[in-house]
Specification:
Layout lengths: L7 H22 L6 H8 L3 H29 L2 H19 L4 H19 L1 H10 L6 H12 L1 H17 L1 H22 L17 H9 L2 H30 L4 H26 L4 H20 L5 H13 L4 H13 L4 H30 L3 H19 L22
Helix pairs in contact: 1-5, 1-6, 1-7, 1-8, 1-9, 3-5, 3-16, 4-5, 4-9, 5-6, 6-7, 6-16, 7-12, 7-15, 8-9, 8-12, 11-12, 11-13, 11-16, 11-17, 12-14, 12-15, 13-14, 13-15, 13-17
Length: 414
């Protein structure tokens, strides 16, 4: 079976499953910051402990993603996604019953981190790219990423409501209910295993040779390094914004509303950048995202926050949130082909998750040491600007041994 031979029901079952799985996996994960003040109070951990648990989550996600990608590329995606859903449930159960920092780190750190490798953006984008023809690949990844953004709109308000009315442990039970919905989604998405890559992408090439080619390509290395900054900025915001707002005397509902705004506007931004990525050079679009994020972070933290400015900030960041996902995945396919896409994106994603680790953990350390986030956000802005301009200048020449493309690359427009 090829992408062109799928009928509409088969294609949308695959894409819909990938979108729902991504949506719920990321929606819950991005809402964990709402639990921080309550877990700090009830189980005797510090802000730095909670931040370290989130940092471990991101590091485990990054470390395991290349290996999960290699397994998926060789053995198929269905069992990988189903295993990820099961591990997600175990992680939430450990968080819900945690009584110490160690148990928190095992649940939210180790288990959720591994689960995200199997269910989140890298795997979902691989599923989306295999289900459609090359001409529709970029916009389709944008659509799946956009639909995958709706999970935060669901998970964040649901979690805040349950935390306020019934306590944070009941909110965790609500999240377990969302995990149950991920099971049929993973089954539907896993049907993409029956779809074969186009003939032009089936050039025989070993995984080791492809990885060696990627590590020798300056553009790939620049993209992976810039992806580090992406992770640092995003996880710093989702982990520490609720605490920052509490320090400023804001109602907790403002933080939940800001996270929901991120999720809602992420729908628009993800689709937009997926559509643009099919028409304009992806490296310029990626660099612009990093630069604009940095400018919005600077503008928000330079002035005292208000409910209105916080919602506007969430909307602006949301428009620039997961739009990077179809662009990074699209660049990998354009440079190296589709065969080992999940592995190569996973390696780049490891860099992203090192940044996420620092964004979560270092943010908490700086806050505990200095009593404010000033140094943290200024550092995030500076390196974001550097990464953005470096990304725009990356080398996009394909390696000589890469499989041929069946569609031309977007060319710069006048």
């Amino acid at each position: 079976m090829t992408p062109a031979s799928l009928n509409s029901v088969q294609r949308w079952s695959i894409l819909g499953g990938a979108a729902v799985m991504l949506s719920l996996a990321m929606g819950m994960r991005q809402s964990f910051g709402l639990f921080q003040p309550h877990m700090v109070r009830d189980i005797g951990v510090t802000t730095a402990d909670f931040s370290l648990a989130m940092a471990i989550q991101n590091l485990v996600w990054g470390v395991t993603q290349p290996f999960v990608g290699a397994v998926a590329d060789r053995l198929g995606l269905r069992w990988v996604t189903l295993a990820g859903v099961a591990v997600y449930a175990v992680g939430l159960g450990l968080m819900m019953n945690a009584t110490s920092a160690l148990e928190l780190m095992l649940g939210s750190g180790l288990c959720i981190g591994l689960a995200l490798s199997c269910t989140a953006s890298s795997v979902a984008m691989s599923i989306a790219s295999r289900a459609v023809t090359p001409a529709k690949r970029s916009v389709t990844m944008g659509i799946v990423s956009a639909l995958g953004s709706l999970g935060l709109v669901i998970a964040s308000p649901m979690a805040q409501t349950l935390i306020t009315t019934s306590g944070w442990r009941v909110a965790m039970v609500g999240f377990l209910g969302l995990v149950c919905v991920m099971v049929p989604a993973a089954l539907g998405a896993g049907a993409v295993d029956r779809v074969k890559a186009p003939p032009s992408q089936q050039l025989e090439q070993s995984l080791r040779a492809v990885v060696r080619s990627a590590f020798g390509h300056s553009g790939y290395l620049v993209m992976a390094s810039a992806f580090f900054v992406c992770g640092l900025q995003l996880v710093f915001i989702t982990t520490h914004l609720p605490t920052y707002l509490a320090d400023c005397g804001m109602d907790p509902s403002v933080g939940a509303a800001a996270l929901a705004a991120i999720g809602l506007f992420n729908v628009i931004g993800s689709y937009l950048f997926g559509w643009l990525g099919g028409r304009y050079p992806k490296q310029y679009l990626l660099g612009s995202v990093y630069v604009l994020r940095s400018l919005f972070v600077a503008a928000y933290f330079l002035t005292p926050p208000t409910p209105a400015s916080t919602i506007v900030f969430g909307a602006a960041m949301g428009a620039l949130w997961l739009g990077v996902v179809p662009l990074v995945n699209g660049l990998v396919v354009e440079l190296f082909g589709l065969r080992y896409m999940t592995t190569l994106v996973g390696i780049a994603f490891f860099s992203h998750q090192i940044g996420s680790f620092l964004g979560a953990w270092a943010g908490g350390v700086i806050y505990d040491a200095l009593g404010s986030y000033d140094v943290a956000w200024k550092a995030a802005v500076l390196i974001g600007l550097i990464a953005g301009f470096a990304q725009m200048l990356m080398n996009v020449r394909r390696p000589a041994d890469a499989p041929p493309l069946s569609a031309p690359l977007p060319q710069p427009t006048a």
